[in-house]
């Protein structure tokens, strides 16, 4: 914990020179810790939390993000939601291998365009040090737009972020990583509102049956369900399989295939 605390102190020191900062808030643990640090370093009057709201978040995910903000920052500041329309972006809808790059660039451009009126010029994002070692096209957009990544800059890894969030009393320290609904569609299959809503309904059904953190990936020839490894046996129980099969057939998602590797 001493190493984590030292990096948190470095994070505060790195934020102070900016004087005023906007934070791209998603409801995940990374951006929550970043927002907490920005408030500690600069004070609420100098921090602007921004949330890009779109069809790519399920209703449950949207409610969860708002809930995380209200629980952890109940009085200090207000969350500014900015609506974006990904299905109006042709390069995003085409869904090639750079989909996340196009999405991140469009979304962060929208946030940046809404900042000057409030007197803010610097946007910070919750990228952590581990993210830089993964294949993440969106990071290219972050760099091109001049968005700063304080967590990564001080070397905070994902496990360290979670440990700090827990020590600081942040409610989502153990929240599983989430991703937008578009990540459930295979590359080069155009993204439609109908597909996104079907994925949302399928995952909501599975969540309601106890398979939290599941993923439903829609392919042209089948639907692949991913559940946590410790949920695989329960999913394979005859009663659960029958229930899932019946519901998914109602959504015209068949055949249904279970990923044996789990999440």
Describe this structure in words.
By secondary structure, the chain is α/β, with parallel strands linked by helices. The chain has 2 domains: 2-167, HUPs (Rossmann fold); 192-258, GMP Synthetase, Chain A, domain 3 (2-Layer Sandwich). Helices cover 44% and strands 11% of the residues. The chain has 11 helices and 7 strands. The chain has helices at 2-15, 29-42, 59-72, 90-93, 99-114, 138-144, 150-153, 158-167, 193-208, 232-236, 238-250, and strands spanning 21-24, 47-53, 80-83, 123-124, 215-218, 223-226, 256-258. The strands form 2 sheets. The chain has a 4-stranded parallel beta sheet with strand order 3-2-1-4, sandwiched between helices. A hairpin with a 4-residue loop joins strand 5 and strand 6 (223-226). Helix 1 crosses helix 2 (29-42), helix 2 (29-42) crosses helix 8 (158-167) and helix 5 packs parallel to helix 6 (138-144).
How would the blueprint of this fold be written?
Blueprint lengths: L1 H14 L5 E4 L4 H14 L4 E7 L5 H14 L7 E4 L6 H4 L5 H16 L8 E2 L13 H7 L5 H4 L4 H10 L25 H16 L6 E4 L4 E4 L5 H5 L1 H13 L5 E3 L5
Parallel strand pairs: 1-2, 1-4, 2-3, 6-7
Antiparallel strand pairs: 5-6
